[in-house]
């Protein structure tokens, strides 16, 4: 389908934002190869969920006449494939529904030349950058100091290893929701988890997301996050809940190693053989034993031997209720 026809499909639905209601600022929140995210201001109140240490969710609304939002744009050099993917992402986000640990689309602009996806603003940015930036204070198990660079100022949320377990639970909860709706994200990684002002974790970036009405989705080629992929995705391009569980395990390793890149000494081309030989990443120094056991379970060679997200969530819930 051509871009104009895709855009026409979306026009005039309840998601369409009028240009006069949205102001896109110059500050770039993130720059990927396939989209740029800018800070924006949207007229009107938007729902806001806060999560507290006890994992209770509280619904609030932004105050005032306008809300801070994030605006995803196509880069100027985007090719036809990039544009089609962008419109796919838009339509996925409309179907997603609301879940506190999945980023919500607030609206969009489906102009074929300059389409925009407007989502909740997540003040602390992506989990990978957050971990790398706060590695020192997390290692000491102390409250992070105000950021010197001033890009994410004034957070006062203590980030300790136990808080990482809470974030792992929240992401798992979001993935339970996605898999129960047969959505396969295909790019579960710390770079795609966003943190709100209240430290609520949200799964984002649905550029690779697909709907699988059978439990298996097969896709060949395209841009691939090789080191996050399960053996059957690398070899046979298969995607299931169990391949998402593998990627979630890699994300857990990113978290508890405080932002280390996976398998730094292995070339992407060598990954299949490396995994087939039974090699897996070691336990990071600060990683609780119980979390490493979960990672290893997620990296069982055969998908059927890996746990489901429901099982993982139950185990992490138990961990969170243990101890202080
Ligand atoms: N970077 C990418 N998406 C973002 C968002 N929704 N909020 C803040 N920073 C982001």
Automatic annotation (TrEMBL):
GO BP annotation list: cell surface receptor protein tyrosine kinase signaling pathway
Cellular component, GO, one term: receptor complex
Keyword rRNA processing: no
Name of the protein in question: Protein kinase domain-containing protein
Keyword Protein transport: no
GO MF annotations, alphabetized: ATP binding; transmembrane receptor protein tyrosine kinase activity
Organism: Mesorhabditis belari
Keywords noted in UniProt: ATP-binding, Kinase, Membrane, Nucleotide-binding, Signal, Transferase, Transmembrane, Transmembrane helix, Tyrosine-protein kinase
Domain called Protein kinase: residue spans: 23-320
